[in-house]
# Entry
Amino acid sequence: MNPQAAPLAIALGDPAGIGPEVILGAWVRLRQERRAPTAFVVGGPEILRMIAEALGIDCPIVPIADPAEALFASAAGLPVMAGLDAPWAPGSPDSEGARLALASLSWATKFSLSGVASGLVTAPVAKSALAAIGWDYPGQTEFLAEACDLAYRDAVMMLAGPSLRTVPLTVHTPLAEVPTLLSTDLITHKARIVAAGLSRDFGIANPRLAIAALNPHAGEGGKFGDEETRIIAPAIAALQAEGIDVFGPVPGDALFTPRMRTTYDAALAMYHDQALIPLKALEVDEGVNVTLGLPIIRTSPDHGTAFDIAGRGLADPGAMLAAIVMATDMAAARTGNG
# Structure
């Protein structure tokens, strides 16, 4: 299939969470704005139909048997692959829903790897529910890395919004372990992937990277820690020697000010919350989780399953809409149509 014509594959996420309803909400809004891409949801046609009816969402569900049908089916409604479904129990995750979420993710990944889909958008999953059925990954990012025959460290999480992109160099790990996990090699390896990804998928010819400090005041000359001089500064020097536009280490309390944000295209943070707190504070309804370094395109809304509000019509589809639009733009950039 011509990758320019291939539709996006959308993985359903945990059906007990808000994933299915934000997919519906995003699709309706995109259609209203006349910018809906060609896409299809992998599984859950009955769940999506029930949610649309229960929440009064005007989105006809069009079951399809093959992704190639998505282009024509989208004229009538939201194309959804038939054959995968489960009962709808909002707010009550169970093993049946977890199996559906995993099957949807697995098939959507296969479609993307084969070129049948131009990219992959993943709705939120419940890691605990997946673990209960034998899923042994820290998150969807690591699952996708293995599916692409890559080491986990080659798949880099970037959080992106209209005014900020951040990359956590360490992700789901206790804060006390962060200093032991940081290394010059880790920083240089991930920075290279980020620079390449910004160029390939976002059309930024010469990406500018900012590197955060780990300690207050960037260590204050060693008074508050030596990671800046011992680990971070050598990584920055090595990257600069390679021709990458990078600077730092910048104290975390200065890195995300309005003026500073105009000086870089992505900020590399030392740990999870250092990257995610500013992104969510600024772009809570438009934040997108992008996986860089993969041979396929993958985006996801930067929020979780929100079981507490699932099925109540309270979920904002903005982040899912942004994830779909970003995946579409990335696919266009890769095929030279950006």
Remarks:
- The radius of gyration is 20 Å.
- The chain has two domains: 1-149+294-338, 156-293.
